[in-house]
Amino acid sequence: MLTWRVPALYGTLGGTALAAGALLASPAGMWWALAGVTGLVLLLTGLDWLVAAPAGEVQLTRSGPRQVRLGDSVEITLTVTNVSLRTLRGLVRDAWVPSAGADGPYAHPVDLEPGESAQVVTRLTPTRRGDRPAVRVTIRSYGPLGLAFRQTSQRRAARLTPPWTVTALPPFTSRRFLPEKLSRLRVLDGQTVARGRGQGTEFDALREYVVGDDVRSIDWRGTARSGQVMVRTWRPERDRRVLCVIDTGRTSAGRVAAVPVPGAATPPGEPRLDAAIDAALLLAVLASHADDRVDLLAVDTRIRATVGGATKRTQLDRLTRTLAGLQPALVETDFGLVAGELMRAGRKRSLVVVFTALDPGALGEGLLPVLPQLVARHTVLVAAVQDPSLRVLAADRAGTAELHVAAAAERSLAELDRVQRALTRYGVHVVQAPVETLASAVADRYLSLKAAGRL
């Protein structure tokens, strides 16, 4: 391979030869001089190519983190070791998939003596969830004169490239709500202990009676056995089951439009699936702190992901790793499959949280037919992202075009209300909120149901 220096050198020497021939008024000498220049340039280029170190005689290793939250950055270090007997002067390009968000120069210059090593650092800021693999490391080795270079072939570069994958985890932006929700959970525990036995509580332990205890809490059998007055203590019900069902069908692929701003371009918004994942993570962490069992099911026409049986310590890690690569499928969700999975899981009553869209067609043909058997055994909560732009468009009636848009928005809002009323008639709890507050609204409804003992 030739560099830009070859035509530059040839132009300089050839121009000199032509000028000399013109001054001497010897056309034959001019052509002989030009031929000599051509031979000299070809000889120098060939020697430069032969002296260049073989591009494939390098050893490549990687180091760095393998996980990063979406929106954060990591640095991956590629160590290049020259194992040839010649000095390696060249460029190293570490290529990644576009969604890995590699930042930095296109190629990194290296100058390595035999046995020396150099480090090439690539900063990654992923733009999508999931696995983001390294593609290929290409080595280009130049000769001392910089006239020619050797470069690894695509097949050779693929063999040399050390495999490395960085997993972009969900950003979990709703974790900012977690301190407030945990504080409410502690208040709920304190209220349960203070009021004693009631709905949503279970027996905890026996202790000695102190002044101020409710005499109705005295356990007479325990008192007879111990010889001292013993009272029963209660705690909030624990070991309840919470099942998060994430709809990965076609409706989850849609983006929720942001509120239109006059004179400004409307941003693309956030996918419904990402909002559901964020809300499910907050609910799972909150429920695990309440000592409830959290399971997760991602489904459309088949089960895409499932998580169950994780402890409080490993709950968040397992959920984020499982949900990292979850992508929507352009199919209609089979809610009958969800009902079948719940029936096979056992008869224990659970809180089933379905993260989906309030789409009349999808819910009318998919969810509503299986709701009676779900509600008969479980407490069902449907969580959906609310599109705030609908009410903005419905209120704008300045002209004829805006009036037609407002009519379409009003019809969409009426259909959403109709679907919500239909779900409520079945005894389903419905939470509909914008993307920014959906996770908080779902967590609040979980705490309310827990306080009422309806899990």
From TrEMBL:
Organism ancestry: Bacteria, Bacillati, Actinomycetota, Actinomycetes, Micromonosporales
Transmembrane regions: 7-25, 31-52
Keywords assigned by UniProt, alphabetized: Membrane, Transmembrane, Transmembrane helix
PANTHER family registered for this protein in UniProt: BLL2464 PROTEIN, SLR2013 PROTEIN
Pfam families the record matches: DUF58 (PF01882)
Stated name of the protein: DUF58 domain-containing protein
Protein's UniProt keywords contain Membrane: yes
Domain of life: Bacteria
